[in-house]
Amino acid sequence: MWKHGTMLRDRRLYAGRTSACGDNSGKLSELPRIVAAISSAIVVACGAERSEGKTAARAEVTRVGDTTIVTTYGEVVPRAADEVELLWRSPELENPVALLHAGTRIVVADRDRVHLLADDGEHLRTVGRAGEGPGEFLYIVWVGRLGQDTIAVHDAVNHRLSFMTRNGDYLGFASMRPPRSYANPLNAKERGGPARGFVAVDGGVISFWRDGVFSDGSRPTRTALVWTDWVSDTATVRRTWDGERWIGEGPIVVPRELFGPRVISAIASDGRVAVGNGTDYCVTIEATNGVPVRKVCRNRTAAPVGDGIRSPDLRRVRSAPRREALEVLVRRQELPRRLPHFDRLFFDEQGWLWVRTLGTELSEVSPYLTHDVPSLVPDYRMWDVYDVGGALVATISLPSNFEPQTATPARIYGFVELSSGEVAIGALALPF
C-alpha cells in the first residue's frame, strides 16, 4: 500500500507522489528509449534541464581471459514508473507464484491452477486443479515457454513438468525429479522479484536448486545449477555456489550474517545464467556450460546499516513467540556496516538484466519488522536495467507493492498488492 494514497481511474492506479521524470499527475512523460553500445558513453536523463549538475554515467570495457567486464561509473537520473494498470482482479486469484507473457497471452501460475489471460487482462480460461492426475497440480513453482506455442508448468510436489498449448489444452508431462541432495527449487515467489529459477529448452530444463540443509551456523547452504534431461529423467549438477549460514531459535531460522553473501541468480530464456552475491556490485553472466562470458559491474557506494536495523524495536512484532525467538537471534547475528548493493535479479523477454538495488531509503528498515509494520517499507524500489551487452540503459523506480515478473520492450507485468490485501495482475509502461 502506498503511504501517499492511490486513485483508481479506468483500471489504472496512480501513486500520489511527484514523478522523477515529470509532474505530480502520476502520468509518465514520453521519453525516448535509449540503447547504448557498451563502448560508448551512456547518458540517461529526463531532459536537459534535469540533467544539469548530474554526472553522466559512463561504461568502461575490459577483458580478463575470456570474460568481458563492463563497469559503469557515475550517476544516472532515475525514471519513475508510477502508473499501474490493473489487468485482472478476481477472487479466483488466490496465491499467484509465477507469471509468463507469451505473445498475446498472460499465463499466471496460481499454486494448483493456471489462469490464461488476454494481453488486455481479459480472463480466457482457468485450467488445472489440486491432485496427482494428468493436468492436475499440487505445488506449481514455475511456468515458462517451450518454443513459441507450448507452455511448461513445473510442479515441485508431483515432480513433473506438464505441457499445454497457449490456449490451455493439455499435452502431456515429463518427470522432473530433484537432483540428489537438493530439495528446494530456487524460484518460489519472493516479495519484489519474479520466479526465475527455471528455463525450459529443447529436451530439458536449466534450473537452480538449494540443498535445504539448515544446520545451526556450521555450514553454508549450497545452491546448484542443474541440467535436467526429461527424456532420460536424469538431473546433472553443473555448478555449485555456497550461500548463507543459518542460526535458529525454536521455529525461527535466520541468516547468521544479516545481509551477508548469498546466491542471487536468474536465468534468461536463451539459457544464460546470472549470479551475484550483493556484497559487491558485480553480476557474472555465464553460458549454460558454466563458462563466464560477461561480468556486469557498477562503481557504487553501498548504503549504511542504520540503528533501525542494528537495534530493531521488536516490541512491534505482534506474535509473542516469534518476538521472543527474534530477540535471541538478533543478539547472535553478525551485522555488516553496509547494506548489500542488490537483492534481486531477473532477465526480461529480450534478455536484458534487471537488478534491484538497496539504497539509503532502506538503511533503517529491519527485515524483521516489515511484515508487522508495513509503513516501514519505502513507497518505491530502484531497479538498474542493463542491455545484452552490459550497458546500463536506465534506473527505474517501481512501486514497492508491484512485484515485476517479466518485461517486454514496452511494458512490465507483475503482481500488485492492493490496500485491501488482495493480489491482482497489473502492468506498467516502461518509462524509457
Average the pLDDT over all residues and give the rounded result: 82
Query: At the first level of CATH, what is the class?
Result: Mainly Beta
Tell me the name of the CATH homologous superfamily: TolB, C-terminal domain
Radius of gyration: 21 Å
For this structure, the CATH topology is: Neuraminidase
Structure explained in plain terms:
With 432 residues, the protein is mainly beta. It has a single domain, classed as Neuraminidase (6 Propeller), CATH 2.120.10. It is built from three helices and 32 strands. Strands 1-2-6-32-31-30 form a six-stranded antiparallel beta sheet, with no helix packed on it. A hairpin with a 5-residue loop joins strand 23 (273-276) and strand 24. 41% of the residues are buried.
Short summary of the structure?
The chain is mainly beta and 432 residues long. Helices cover 5% and strands 41% of the residues. The protein is built from three helices and 32 strands.
Helix-strand layout with pairing:
Elements: E1 6-9, E2 12-15, H1 48-51, E3 58-64, E4 67-73, E5 79-80, E6 84-88, E7 98-102, E8 105-109, E9 114-118, E10 123-127, E11 140-146, E12 150-155, E13 160-165, E14 170-175, E15 184-185, E16 198-201, E17 204-210, E18 222-229, E19 234-242, E20 246-249, E21 252-255, E22 264-267, E23 273-276, E24 282-286, E25 292-298, H2 307-310, H3 320-332, E26 342-347, E27 353-357, E28 380-386, E29 392-399, E30 402-407, E31 411-417, E32 423-429
